[in-house]
Design a protein that fits this description.
alpha/beta; four-stranded antiparallel β-sheet; 34 helices
Length: 868
């Protein structure tokens, strides 16, 4: 019937009876054909069991063509039916609008009968006591029970009830925090209802909260949490994102999501590509320094794919060694690129004098993104021809007004020299305004445009060096990815296969010489003893699978090859030691072979042998990289995978809540596991010099938690908050205060660690000498009667201040002081002396304030997510 109504083939009307208790019970049916013949039936035959067993039922039929009497009866019935059907005051169409009106009226009548609480007196409920209250409202005589939702620390017991009032007792647990009871759940025989009093009662205990003097703002945060005025985990996430809004300017991508779903990309490649494109948009260059095996080439292709999606297409230039071109063609093909979308250039030609690389490159110079593979080769050394060629490309772009994106790929961006980082970045930074966006000093732009002063200033300033490295370099290791996403598949299993590789002629000759020696002289009995004992001398040398291994190691680097040869030597010596314990008979040989081929285990005191296969070779590479990376000072100053992984999620949250959203940074949430942080805390650390002067440039926001401290604190805060449910119910005051006290004690210990790390004033010989030289310069200036034209006292004071701040750490400052006290410039006349001092100091590009060494600090709480 519903289908017939929907198709307009059946129309139904309801009839309104004059009597409120009557029903329209007529049973009349009229059927008419195209010839105006009619059949009328009156009455019905009820097919229910009760009708057939108890009722008397009858149906009468009339036919218009049988008799005049029947025709008149039928016409009377038609006239009466039509008059009732057409009367708007009597019959109503069964339409959607009519049904909605009926439902609305039904809800209105139901609400009239629902129980409602309007007020509770007295309005204050002290914890630890049972208070008799009067509850007023409507339809309260139907109430069977009253419950406070999500609050087991308050119970209501009904003593008596009337339609407009209830007398009850309310018991509040002693540990109940101060809060307002805004909702009450009322249970009746007809159902369960939620009602909110106009003037809700409050639980108002008198709390004794510690002062928490070591952390400014901590007490106020605890009071907010205990009063129930805290925010939600999304508030905490929004606040975190607002601290680094540039980090979350990433766009979601349906195409990349599908590539992850289809197994073409791993999640870390997708999020890494989003991160790299954001960095390139800010600075013009990004460096992907992920470790071996994490798929940098595919990540680079993904960056180009994402750029093309956002800009309706992309042209790509890939500069790589000729031997890697086939690999690049496969990677680009996996991401859906064809040969018309990109150009491959031979990087080897960049280092050759007299080649036409620039001509060829400029011929197809319309690329939007330039990908430079193995960027460390040739670019870390600024005297190298490859470095100079890159500078020429950038200079040509600068003259033509072009700003392209550069993506550099390298697993080894530096060799423990900060200058390596400067050299890698300097040819490609075409958007230095990115530094201003991050509130980095304006002098930084000058440093990267002027090598003479830039290298030393950049490498000497630890804070700026680390910040620049963090912003422009994406450097992740396998261990970092495992820690961030232990349950996620992170990287592809390596499958060794033979591929044709075209080496340079000189490289080919060197490898041929090395492997000829290996095949003739290198014997490896530990790899397959049975074969070694059974075959002739020529067949005992380098086995086929080991030849492939050595080729891989040699192609990686000569250092890697040296390590592998050394490892082979160690295994041969281990084999010798093991054979010395073998008895010289058949049983001894049998036992040795059973152990070697792992049919039996060695005794605890015997040496062990390792099967050296491809997987172990690659693991050696990975482990070596992990160890090297851990020793680098930048290992703790990079964007971690935890931060990057949630970039898209936080980007969406910021858009949903809007720029004007006022997040409550004091938040409470529920714990989801025992091995997760209880407290996620952001603290502002301010530093002060020996005379109490504020050192604003050293101030920082520290993200800390009670599980890992500040290790990946920002990323851990994001990841944990993302998984934290809202605190939907009430926690006891005792529990919350205990959590707060425990966190506070841990924060005091952390503050003490920060204080112990403060650099104290160096009293060494260098500082004493430079201090004496500054004093001599100051005395000479004090004796000058008038300043030279164009100089004022403030400029002179600022110059002396900068020299005093950097005297202990900056080599060029120490050289300048020596030159103006003992060198040629000390012999200048007063006007020239002062002018030259100011000019030479300005040329150093020193940052005012950074040279002061902090001797004290304060810590204040900025945001907290307590998980109870």
């Amino acid at each position: 019937m519903a289908e017939l109504v929907w198709l307009n083939m059946l129309q139904i009307k309801l009839v309104k009876m004059a009597s409120g208790r009557g029903i329209y019970h007529k049973k009349t049916g009229i059927l008419t054909d195209v010839l105006e013949n009619h059949i009328l039936h009156e009455g019905s035959d009820n097919f229910t069991r009760a009708a057939h067993s108890k009722n008397a039922e009858a149906v009468t039929f009339f036919y218009s063509w049988d008799s005049k009497l029947d025709s008149e009866a039928i016409n009377d019935a038609i006239r009466q039916f039509d008059s009732e059907w057409e009367r708007e005051d009597l019959s109503f169409d069964l339409s959607q609008e009519f049904l909605q009106q009926v439902l609305t009226e039904r809800e209105r009548r139901q609400k009239l009968n629902e129980p409602v609480i309007e007020s509770i007196s007295p309005p204050e409920l002290p914890p630890g006591e049972t208070t008799t209250v009067e509850i007023t409202g409507k339809n309260l005589d139907k109430v069977e029970n009253i419950i406070i939702p999500d609050d087991t620390l308050v119970t209501v017991t009904i003593e008596s009830k009337e339609p407009e009032s209830i007398t009850a007792t309310v018991s509040v647990d002693p540990d109940h925090p101060p809060t307002t009871l805004t909702e009450f759940q009322i249970i009746t025989g007809d159902g369960t209802y939620i009602t909110s009093p106009t003037a809700p009662p409050t639980v108002t205990p008198t709390l004794e909260i510690s002062e928490y003097p070591e952390i400014v703002g901590y007490k106020q945060a605890v009071e907010i949490i205990l009063s129930g005025a805290y925010g939600k985990p999304n508030d905490f996430l929004y606040w975190l994102a607002q601290q680094r809004p540039h980090q979350f300017q990433v766009e979601s991508s349906d195409i990349l999501d599908k590539l992850v779903y289809d197994g073409v990309l791993f999640e870390h490649q997708k999020s890494g590509a989003q991160h790299c494109l954001r960095v390139m948009q800010d600075f013009g260059v990004a460096v992907c320094a992920d470790s071996v095996g994490l798929g940098k080439s595919r990540l680079a292709a993904t960056v180009a794919k994402l750029y093309g999606e956002q800009n309706n297409g992309v042209k790509v230039a890939i500069i790589a060694a000729k031997k890697l071109h086939d690999n690049w063609e496969r990677e680009m093909s996996e991401l859906g690129f064809n040969s018309n979308n990109y150009e491959l250039y031979n990087k080897n030609l960049m280092s050759r004098k007299g080649n036409n690389f620039l001509t060829e490159f400029n011929r197809y110079g319309g690329a939007d993104i330039i990908i430079l593979d193995e960027a460390h080769e040739g670019i870390r050394n600024y005297r190298n021809r490859i470095h100079r060629t890159c500078l020429q490309i950038q200079e040509q772009d600068r003259k033509s007004g072009r700003q392209r994106y550069f993506l550099l790929l390298t697993a080894t961006p530096w060799n423990n020299r900060r200058e390596d980082i400067y050299n890698i970045l300097s040819p490609f930074l075409n958007r230095p305004e990115g530094f201003n966006k991050l509130n980095l000093p304006a002098e930084l732009v000058h440093w990267f445009q002027n090598r003479d002063v830039g290298v030393e200033n950049f490498t000497d300033n630890t804070e700026i060096f680390r910040r620049v490295y963090k912003e422009l370099f994406l450097q992740r290791t396998r261990q970092m990815l495992r820690e961030a996403t232990p349950d996620m598949n992170l990287y592809a299993k390596r499958i060794a296969e033979w591929l044709p590789v075209e080496f340079e002629v000189s490289t080919e000759e060197a490898l041929e010489q090395i492997f000829t020696q290996f095949e003739d002289s290198l014997f490896i009995p530990f790899a397959d003893p049975i074969r070694y004992l059974r075959e002739n001398v020529e067949q005992r040398s380098l086995l086929r699978n080991q030849r492939r291994l050595f080729l891989q190691r040699a192609e990686s680097s000569m250092y890697a090859l040296q390590r592998t040869i050394k490892a082979f030597g160690n295994r041969i010596r281990e084999l010798q030691n093991l054979l010395q314990q073998v008895t010289p008979d058949a049983d001894g040989l049998k036992q040795f072979l059973l152990v070697h081929y792992k049919f039996e285990s060695l005794s605890k005191n015997q040496p062990t042998l390792f099967d050296l296969d491809d997987r172990e070779a690659w693991d050696e590479d990975y482990e070596e990289e992990e160890e090297v990376y851990k020793k680098q000072e930048t290992s703790t100053n990079v964007y971690t995978q935890t931060e990057i992984l949630y970039g898209e999620e936080l980007s969406k949250l910021m858009k949903e809540l809007g720029d004007d959203y006022q997040a409550n940074p004091i938040t409470l949430g529920r714990r989801t596991g025992d091995n997760e942080p209880t407290g996620l805390i952001a603290m502002t650390v301010k530093y002060f010099g020996p005379n109490g002067e504020a050192i604003d440039s050293q101030n920082q926001t520290v993200f800390w938690n009670d599980q890992t401290g500040d290790k990946d604190g920002y990323g851990t805060a994001i990841a944990t908050a993302s998984k934290t449910p809202e605190a939907g119910d009430i926690f006891s005051t005792k529990h919350l205060l205990q959590n707060a006290d425990n966190l506070y004690q841990s924060l005091i210990e952390y503050k003490q660690e920060l204080q112990s790390e403060l650099q104290q004033e160096d009293s060494g010989e260098v500082t004493n000498t430079t201090s004496e030289r500054i004093t001599r310069i100051q005395r000479r200036i004090q004796q000058i009667n008038a300043l030279p034209d164009g100089l004022d006292r403030k400029t002179v004071r600022d110059t002396l201040k900068k020299l005093g701040q950097w005297k202990a750490t900056h080599k060029n400052v120490q050289k300048l002081l020596r030159d103006f006290t003992e060198g040629a410039k000390s012999k200048l006349d007063d006007d020239s002396f002062l002018r030259q001092l100011v000019e030479d100091t300005d040329e150093l590009g020193l940052l005012a304030g950074d040279g002061i060494k902090a001797t004290s600090l304060t810590v204040s709480l900025a945001a907290v997510l307590m998980r109870a």
